[in-house]
Amino acid sequence: MGKRVKMIFPVPMSEATRPMVESQLPPEFRRPDIDVSFVGAGNTITLADSYYDMAIMELAVIQAGIRAEEEGFDAVCINTVSDSGLAALRARLSIPVLSPGQSAFHLAAMLGHKFSILTMWERWFPLYRKTLKEYGLESRVASIRAIDVRPDTQELLTGKEDIVFAKLEEAALKAIHEDGADVIVL
């Protein structure tokens, strides 16, 4: 019998954005013995650009994680680099809870002396600062840079790739040459 993983996106998903989010797991990484289900958390669209929004997002992820275990899933993965709800879910659930921020930041720290984080907009800096502080990695961060593109999943994944990728490359080169980054975390 295969394993079931619940991938929790930190905000509600529409039928228009679901295929775009699901496409983040390319076919070559899918396995027949692991079923990955994508779910949007909560009922409120939030841009996580205030402490209030961050709390709402965290609670939605926690509730979705608890439901996943009740539904018989074998693991939960939180689909946000902010790792929203990670500590609470690990304290509450008996199944593994994974997140990209913790993995990416620690891998970056192993690959180089300093790493930089590239993000969509400056309003998310507090999310990363909070997580970096919790993991004790503040001294390993060269910089956090934003490309100043308002987050919009549908627009981001349907036609803005060339613009966004160019901005990401420009910010990455600045992080390397101006801030001293050895590794870039997107």
Would you mind describing this structure in some detail?
With 186 residues, this protein is an alpha/beta fold. It folds into two domains: 96 residues, Rossmann fold, CATH 3.40.50.1860; 84 residues, Rossmann fold (3-Layer(aba) Sandwich), CATH 3.40.50. A four-stranded parallel sheet has the order 2-1-3-4. A three-stranded parallel sheet has the order 6-5-7, sandwiched between helices. Helix 3 links the parallel strand 3 and strand 4. The longest helix is centred in the N-terminal third of the chain and has 20 residues. The chain starts with a strand and ends with a strand.
Structural class: alpha/beta
Oligomer: single chain
Helix percent reads 40-55%
Q: What is the count of β-strands? A: 7
Q: Which strands sit side by side, in order, in the main sheet?
A: 2-1-3-4
* Separate helix tally: 7
So what's the overall shape?
globular
Question: Mean pLDDT, as a whole number?
Answer: 87
- Give the C-alpha Rg: 17 Å
**What fold name goes in the CATH topology slot of the largest domain?**
Rossmann fold
C-alpha termini separation: 35 Å
Order of helices and strands: EHEHEHEHEHEHHE
CATH top-level class of the largest domain: Alpha Beta
The portion of residues forming beta strands comes to 15-25%
Which CATH architecture of the largest domain would you pick?
A: 3-Layer(aba) Sandwich
Query: How many separate structural domains?
Result: 2
